[in-house]
Amino acid sequence: MTKKYQRFETAVIHEGYDEKEMLGSLSIPLFQTSTYVFDTAEQGERRFSGEEEGFVYSRLRNPTVRVLEERIARLENGEKGLAFASGMAAVSAVLLSLTKANDHVLCSAGLYGCTYGLLTLMKEKYNITSDFSLLDSEDAIHAKIKPETALIYVETPINPTMKLIDLELVTKVAKEYSIPVVVDNTFSTPYLQRPLDLGCDVVLHSATKYIGGHGDVIAGLVVGKADFIDDLAITARKDIGGIMSPFDAWLLLRGLKTLPIRMDRHCENAVNIFEKLKGHPKVASIYFPGDTESSDGKIAAKQMNKSGGMISFEIKGSKQDAQYFMNRLNFIKIAVSLGDAETLIEHPATMTHAVVPEASRLKMGITDQLIRLSIGLEAWEDIWDDLEQALEHV
Ligand SMILES: *Cc1c(COP(=O)(O)O)cnc(C)c1O
Fold first, then answer.
1. Gap from CA of 34 to ligand 1 centroid (Å)
2. The pLDDT value given to residue 225
3. What would the pLDDT profile of 16-39 be if each residue is shown by its tens digit?
């Protein structure tokens, strides 16, 4: 199909869907089917051999899911996309496909708790080791690369410390060794940051977060080169089987249509809340990519269109003070996950990152006083009023 439009805001609504193939339906139909009928036994044979294009069985391909895969590929400026049952299904598929026993994975200085847990499992079962590094200079990256390093795996901003990784710097060094760079782009979405444009090889998402945006679906997405995605589709997805359900793809396509306008609001609200929290006497430190005075702020300005909707901050006091503060909130919800319409607050040390052993957690900057805030779509003045009254109680 020739593209009659250029921009992101149009692609989130139109990419990958041709209503002429779907009886003129404006809304993308939900293909809630497990299997597809062949005209003849011979056609079945041709479909299985790949000689003839077409649908066979929904673990392999589904028309609703396919629209989402084409759409996310275009949004990330990649060749192909692949959908998974969860963000972790996407993470595990990519990690398993790029590693073999005794390999090494170089990671950013912090990762989503379950990704950390998966790497621990891979070490125990397959002796696949991993290192965590700030990756903040060419020398620092060179120093961490070993002969058996199979990939570099980064989050930026890092969950939950909001530290930034300079993707151009990392890809520059990785290319010298021909090592692929994988980016978990969950916190930024392709609206704010497109790692493939910066030379990275694979992008993945927990689509549960901003891409879905409504707190009603668990899902994962991967985008990369066609040969990598084709291989991933056969091995890690068809044979391991963590596929996305058609209904979840349908919900995500619905959510995705408003991604740019939702993100604009999340970002604007977050800037306002950051300005208020920054100088508050009960706040010991604050981490936000929009902090232009920090070194991370400079990286953000270089590679992100806006600074996102996530803020982390440390409260002055103890773990109990942090929990007391959270309990005093009125409408802000205590919940993990992020990117929803509702403002959500969580305590990483005892929730999302409780699996990380204390020493590693503290090294990553996840203290007992650290609180992670996902700024929602409410009026920012109401969000601030709620935070402020709870801070006064600490
Ligand atoms: C939530 C999250 C994941 C895991 O995604 P699920 O959809 O919960 O499986 C991975 N990476 C990041 C950065 C996340 O926030």
1. 27
2. 98
3. 999 999 999 999 999 999 999 999
In sequence order, what are the beta bridge partners of 205? 221
Residue 345's DSSP bridge partners are 334, 373
Which CATH class for the 8-256 domain? alpha beta
What are the φ and ψ backbone dihedral angles of 318, each rounded to 5 degrees? -115, 180
128 close to 103: Cβ distance less than 8 angstroms: yes
Question: Which residues line the pocket of ligand 1, CB cutoff 6 A?
Answer: 86-88, 91, 112, 114-115, 155, 159, 184, 186, 206, 208-209, 218, 220
Cβ contact 361:249 at 8 Å:
no
Averaged pLDDT, 235-250: 95
Which candidate in 112, 153, 191, 210 is catalytic?
112
3-state DSSP helix/strand/coil % of the chain, to nearest 5 = 45, 15, 40
CA dihedral sign, ordered 351, 263, 329, 297: positive
CA angle, residues 263, 269, 270, in degrees to nearest 5: 85
User: Which residue among the candidates 136, 166, 184, 248 is catalytic per the annotation?
Assistant: 184
Domain ranges of the chain: 8-256, 259-391
Say how many Å lie between the CA of residue 335 and the centre of ligand 1.
Answer: 14
CA of 284: how far to CAs of 61, 124, 317, 367, in Å? 50, 38, 9, 12
Amino acid at 117: G
Among 208, 214, 346, 353, the mutation site with the greatest number of ligand 1 atoms within 8 A of its Cβ is: 208
DSSP state of 35: B
Nearest CA to ligand 1 atom 1: 206
Tell me, which fold does domain 259-391 have in CATH?
Aspartate Aminotransferase, domain 1 (3.90.1150)
Collapse the DSSP code of 218 into the 3-class scheme (helix H, G, I; strand E, B; otherwise coil) and give the result: coil
Active site residue 184: yes
pTM comes to 0.96
